[in-house]
Amino acid sequence: MNFDITILGSGSAVPTPKRNPSSQFINCHNRKILMDCGEGTQFQIRKFKIKLQSIQIILISHLHGDHYFGLAGLLSTMNLLGRDGQLTIYGPEGLENILRSQLKIGDSKFAFDITFKTLFGKEREIIFEDKKMEIHTFPLKHKIATNGFLIKEKEPLRKLKKEAIEKDDIAIEYRHRLQKGEKIMDASGKILDLDRYTYPPKKARSYAYCSDTMPNESNLDLLNEVDLMYHEATFVNQHKARAKSTMHSTAEQAANFAKKAKAKKLILGHFSNRYLDTNTHQKEASAVFENVLIGEDGLNIKL
Amino acid sequence: MNFDITILGSGSAVPTPKRNPSSQFINCHNRKILMDCGEGTQFQIRKFKIKLQSIQIILISHLHGDHYFGLAGLLSTMNLLGRDGQLTIYGPEGLENILRSQLKIGDSKFAFDITFKTLFGKEREIIFEDKKMEIHTFPLKHKIATNGFLIKEKEPLRKLKKEAIEKDDIAIEYRHRLQKGEKIMDASGKILDLDRYTYPPKKARSYAYCSDTMPNESNLDLLNEVDLMYHEATFVNQHKARAKSTMHSTAEQAANFAKKAKAKKLILGHFSNRYLDTNTHQKEASAVFENVLIGEDGLNIKL
Q: Domains plus CATH for chain B?
């Protein structure tokens, strides 16, 4: 099943011709999630041919403008294009109030239902869960309350070994239970051998979004062995002091963090507009962690 | 001296690949004015190579999102790029509060000074005036309080007739006063003949911005003989009923209004995203008014 991430904005607060402010679109088992929503996100959604109305969940990491100034316009367009499907927005305290004020002064009403859920950025929490996936939030270390997000699929089903199943004529009703790894006693009182009839399940895939933050090692246990980690890398080593004072990270710090978390792959983003290219980010991160990707607007990564 | 308009956004509430939401940049005698500021206006400013920090005045017509959702991001970018020059924003009640709330929840402060001036959309007013130009506001007829704007240059100076000036050896100190049309008595007690020494001044140029509105004939006297009128034309005749119920205009209504105002030229904009092109707008407007321009993002018009 699908689990992929599309980068909609890989820039930081000052947008550039190539990099919009932060936003990502995630499709996890056809659950469609928008992660942050900087100005112009609705233009990027159109440009990269994502179905606007397919978005069911919006996660806002924090209330610096480059992470949410596109939200009001996005919601307005959803409404004008006839949305009726419910939408849930998870975001910091104050977001709902701003959006409702904007609706009120425009004397506007939406024809679809929005549920706001407030995140306080202070503790870990499972904020969404269904049979296919779950979303965790975890606190980051930034100037204002900021949430990271971990999207994990539920453990996939075991794959059936067809030959053995057919040979032993295993009843249809047992097959799905075998896939789920259940212990089954058949009509004759025999326990079915799971390894005879199924392959072990694939490992559940996971994606971590570490939005604006200094490296926050208290999250290492939660993010251990994550398949893909996005970590902001606003700066390079030359501006390490600036990274510290603004509570952002350098590319090397992001890579060190990914290494300690034993992440399989790291994608960097939120690059300051002061850099003409990301060669130094790539070089400094690759020196400590081998599997580094540079985020680019429009880049799609399949897990 | 310069008096020109650049269309930054010619679309309406739902942006399209070719049309951003409403915004225009006006240079009148090097006074730099931004008229409305839909989402993505800062991207358009960059795209069309306008100097962001040159903007001194921002006029917001009303508080539907497609006219102001780009303002918070624009101000933030001005600040991050080191602005220290003062900025004045004229806009409806509620705008300042929204922007200040956004700053507050982001724990952000701007290093430059913003003066907010509230417009109520209920009566005409001269909101800005200096020696080169003046800005009038006038009420429009829309679903919420909406302001139109009229930018008029002050009457230009008379041009000197060099030959006569030199022939009669008119003193240097009289020349600028002659340009201003003053009645001057020279040292010998003779009144200087204005027509002998100067040509009549060019007519003062003017630009009217009729943002979201039904045609509002109570403004015809103020806008009489305006050089360029922008008038919204969200719809074509086929959707006249929709224009009425949403308090917008059709292209034909806009053209009729321009005709009654004896405007020299009309530029249309705020086209609904339902239309694939503007051929019908052009056709229906041109049937009643000859000098019709279709607004396009990036179009620059010199007065």
A: 3-156+202-302 (3.60.15.10), 161-199 (no CATH)
